[in-house]
Amino acid sequence: MSTRPRSFASDNASGVCPEAWEALAEANRGHTPAYGADPWTERAVALLRETFETDCRVYFTFTGTAANALALGACVRSHHAILAHELAHIEVDECGAPEFFTGGAKVVRVDGAHGKLEPAAVTEAAERRRDVHFPRARAVSLTQATEMGTVYTAEEVRALAAAARTARMAVHIDGARFANAVATLESPPRELSADAGVDVLCLGGTKNGLPAGEAVLFFNGELADEFESRIKQAGQLASKARFLAAPWVGVLENGAWLRHARNANTRAAQLESGLRRLAERWPYVTIVHPREANVVFVRLPPSTMSGLQAAGWFFYDFPAAGGARLMCSWDTTESDVNDFLDAIAALLPDSRPDEETDAYPVMRH
User: Fold this and answer.
1) What Å distances lie between residue 147 and 66, 211, 303, CA to CA?
2) What gap in Å lies between CA 286 and CA 283, rounded to an integer?
3) Can you name the residues that pair with 108 across neighbouring β-strands?
4) Cβ atoms of residues 324 and 305 within 8 Å
5) What is the DSSP letter of 155?
6) Pairing assessment for the beta strands 286-287 and 200-204 based on DSSP bridges
7) Is 117 helix (H, G, I), strand (E, B) or coil?
C-alpha cells in the first residue's frame, strides 16, 4: 500500500487509540451476555455517570447520526420543530435523519456568528410563528464544539437553556466533539451539560479515538422513557454490545478521552499559529473563524489547495464556512503539522492571480 500524508480532512480519518484497542482485545476474551447485559456495558455506564457526576441514563449507538436523531425523537413529536444553527450537522449532514426519526418534525435554521446560537435569536425563532400552520418549536439543538470549531462556555449554555425553558423547549447537544470543548474550557463535563440545563447529550467517541459508537446521556430521565425501544427499532441495539461499550471503558478509566482531545486541540493551535505566520508574508492567507477546538478554517488560493490535494494532502473545501477546513485528530503529531505547513508554504504564489481573488465568499457573520 502506498504511503499518504496524514489527513487533515476529518478526525474520523484517524485510527483507533491504543486504550480503546486494548479494551476491545480484553472484551474479546471468552463469552459474556448479549444486548448490553455484560460487565463492559455496566462499567461504561458507571464511568460515564462518574465522569458527569450525575445519575444520567446512558445508551449506546453505532453512529452520531443515529444518536442525534433518536435523542431528538425523544424530545419532540412529529408536528413540532427543532431549532438548530444553519450549519449544524443535524441540518446539513444527516440526510434528513432527524426529520425521519421524529416522524416529520421540522428542523428550523437559525443564524449565528461562527457556528454559535444566541439566546435572542433562539427566542425570536421560537416565537416567530405561533399559529396552527407552522410547527411549534419544542427543542433546540446545540453543537459542542460547533461545526466552525468554536465552543460554548457554561454560561452561554445556561443562557440558551434558560431561553429554551421560557419557550418550553428541550435542550439537546450534539457533542461529537464535546471532549474537545471540555479540554478547551477545562470545565467539569457536568458544568457544560447537566448543571447548565441540558436535557440530553450525544457524546461523541468515534472522532476521539474510538472505532465506532456514541453515548446518549439523558440528564432529564423523563425523556428517556422507552428509549430502549427507539434504539431497537432503529437497528442500533448491538447484540454484542460489549464491543461498543469496551472502548469507552478504555478511554474513560484513565482520562485518555481528554488527553486525546487536548492533543487534537494543541495541534490545531500549532496549525493556526503557523498559518498566521504564513499570512504575514502572504496576506491573502486568512483565518476565517476563531480556533477554539481542533479545527482551523482558512482561506487559501485555489491553486494552493489543488496543489496540496495533488500531493496527497486530504482536507475538505467548505465554502459555506468560508474556506478550507483543516481538522486535527487525537493522533496528529507536531511533525504532521510542520510538514503540512511546509507544503502549504511551498505552493503559495507570491501574488494572488485576479481570478483567484474572490475564490471564497466572505462570511457575513
Assistant:
1) 18, 21, 25
2) 7
3) 83
4) yes
5) H
6) unpaired
7) coil
| pLDDT (tens place) for every residue of the chain, 365 residues total | 445 667 899 999 999 999 999 999 999 999 999 999 999 999 999 999 999 999 999 999 999 999 999 999 999 999 999 999 999 999 999 999 999 999 999 999 999 999 999 999 999 999 987 878 788 999 999 999 999 999 999 999 999 999 999 999 999 999 999 999 999 999 999 999 999 999 999 999 999 999 999 999 999 999 999 999 999 999 999 999 999 999 999 999 999 999 999 999 999 999 999 999 999 999 999 999 999 999 999 999 999 999 999 999 999 988 777 789 999 999 999 999 999 999 999 999 976 555 444 443 333 22
- Of the chain, the end-to-end C-alpha distance in Å amounts to 44
Report the Cα 275 to chain-centroid distance in Å.
23
Q: Provide the residue type at 88 as one letter.
A: A
pTM beyond cutoff 0.85: yes
Give SS3 for 335. Answer: helix
Domains of the chain: 18-254 (3.40.640.10), 257-356 (3.90.1150.10)
